[in-house]
Amino acid sequence: MPLLSFSFAALFLAVFAFYWLLPGRRARQLLLVAATLVWYAFGVWWHALAAVAMGSTAWLVGRWIASRPPESRGGPTLVGVALLVGYFIFFRYAALWSGADPHQPETLAWWMPNPLLAPVGLSFLMFESIGYHADLYLGRLEKSGSWWDHVVFTLYFPTRVIGPMRKFQRFVPQLGAVRRPTPDQVARGLGRIGIGLFKKAVIANPLGTFALFNMQPQVFENAPAVISVAALYAYWLYLYFDFAGYSDIVIGLSRLLGIDVPENFDHPYRATNISDYWRRWHMSLSFWVREYVYTPLAIRWRRSWWGGPVGAFSSMVVLGLWHGIELRYLAFGIIHGLLLGAHMLYQERTRKSPLAKRVRATRAWSVLGWAFVMNVAVWSHVFYATSSWEVAMRFLRSAARLAGL
Amino acid sequence: MWTWARLLRIATFTLALLIAFDVALLGVEERIARDAQQGRLRNTEGRSSADACLNMLRALPPAGARVAVMVGASVSFGSNIDRDEALPAQLGARWREQGAGLGVVSCAQPGGNNETPIPVAAAFGSRPASLLLVELMVPTFAERGNKAAAPPRSEEEVSLLEMANGEQRAALEAAGQWPPLPARVEARLAEGLRSHWRLFRYRGPLWIDDRMVPDQLIWTVRRWVASAGFLPKRFHGQTTNVGKLPWREAYVGSQRPSGAQRFVVPRARVAEREYAALLQVRELAALAGVPVVFYELPLNLPFQREFALMDEAELARLETLRAALVERMQKDGLDWIAAPELPDDAYLDRAHLTPSGARALAGHLARELAPRVERLAVAAPER
């Protein structure tokens, strides 16, 4: 059931009405779980089982981690991460890596799930669950919570498809915690939904029509290069407005239920350097990799000059591969990782330089930085806009004609 | 600071505004109904959109109407020419001149495929027309290696399928074409809005440019800017020249058509899935007592040669494919009309027609259909 559909609107209206009529926390949680099951039933019903199985696995391992003394939690945490990643790979890649054709189900072995029917939002759920294990390991979360808490956390339908990525300990206490809706909360929720719909329908869709058409190989290989390049810029804008629009709608819907979910975008087009960009773009994911990949590595290597940059590089590689275990996503991660690492190194090296400080404070520097980071953002998205590494390379060759290369 | 009273005031004002707007649309509704009968109304440009088609078929009397329904893709829709110049409107005009007493309803959808007529034929189960005319583009019948999944039906197409009668529904279920429950729920919800809210019902035809829906906005703006002379009056890619220019005038200098203009014919064999769609359309229409005529679209092969889009081997495969398709259709007793030879200036590109091209094809169809239309008049003067 797509977020922008009449069925979703009807389901949410019913949930909204009953949510505030029901008296207790548990009843409201039950309603949300039931609504999510209806939501799943409108797509592929067993996806609900897959999500509950993944959430239950995370909970079981979480209990194991919580039961161990802090100094010996590493092993169970690693087991948890391996299980969650394995679960994800099984659904998404087992068939592809075995050489089967998902479009021809007869080529799949009996135990192989069809990746075309992989449970929706699995990558989000995997990272949310890994974050939960890491928080238990790091002592940020004292108790593993009940199985029911995990079911409710896992089965919250507004965030299930495109996030934003949540934290277990921040999300679960909010469910049913607010007794009555306030006009302020309803107005802010509706306003946010309106902004999201505007971004999606009025800005993103036309841009997407233009960009996606012109990014097809049979089109860009015969088109003037200036059109192809314009399409790539339009693609980045489309991606931003589409994703930010969806995120606004999810945040608005959650507000109507008295729940705050994390923000996902903070005007990324205003970023003046690459670090700033990643503080503004897909924030729930970039904050996740910063918290669970970059920070632990940077702390571990804190005595060496390369600790921070290598940590940043590794976190961007993880971020790239989260989108899919493919060469093009790896390339995206490497490009951003190298630039982020270089930027950190530059900042570290020029921290005490008064000249660098003065230069950085100038408007020209900000404009140059903005132009650079926007171009990096746009051009690196060639790996998302095209269907494969090979097509991305063909596009870049095609675009190079513009520069007479 | 927000209060419940303020929220209520805003909600009431919004509702009042929508109601006022809907009342104001009463006059427009009558104009739209008039246009529909003359083949001048068409679907909104966009994938699987069958909004005008659904409204028009819904408006037909359940006992049947003296109209021919035309179904096809962008050529029959009339991409890049005005709706008055498109094939259905031109055929309607011919029949009016001849006093044939048969209206034309356009159900063509840009981007449509060989399965696009299925929901229309199913809708005849409760709103029968006199005749179903289905576009036939030969290259789309070529067998291809990959089995691409069929695109999901739009909510309007699902609503059309739900208009099927009992026998048609059984046939659709047997063919795996009956929409699943979630799609039907979505269509019913949209149906509820459509029946109570004019603005939603006519959101396509109400745009100032009937090609201008939000998703197509960028093309529309491009078209306006080009028409004003600030950009070349032609597009690369599938969306071709905006000045309705014959292709030899549009593709000049460095302007070359994109690969999207190539007819891809990997094999000369007829694809079973594509051909099965034709049989299913005929079966569904027959179950509603509506005859079907398939009309072959003329192809601009000089265009393919001029820009070396297809090589001679592929052109030969296309010819063999056509022969195989014709043989099979004749064997199965499908009623069809062969494409006419059209002059060079009849085409915008590989197959899309200029206004004069659409007029020529409409003339050809009117001539070929004349005996059938006469038979219809004798068999069922009024349903």
Descriptive notes:
The complex is a heterodimer of chains A (about 400) and B (about 375). By secondary structure, chain A is mainly alpha-helical. Chain A contains 18 helices and no strands. In chain A, helix 3 runs parallel beside helix 5, helix 10 crosses helix 18 and helix 13 runs antiparallel to helix 14. Helices cover about 50% and strands about 5% of the residues of chain B. Chain B has 16 helices and 5 strands. At the A-B interface, helix 1, helix 8 and helix 9 of A face helix 1, helix 9 and helix 11 of B.
- Strand arrangement across the biggest beta sheet of chain B: 2-1-3-4-5
Rg of chain B (C-alpha, Å): 22 Å
What is the tally of helical segments of chain B? 16
Uncertain spans of chain A: none
What's the overall average pLDDT of chain B, rounded? 87
Task: Compute the number of strand runs of chain A.
Answer: 0
Strand content of chain B: 5-15%
Taken from the alpha-carbon principal axes, the silhouette of chain A is globular
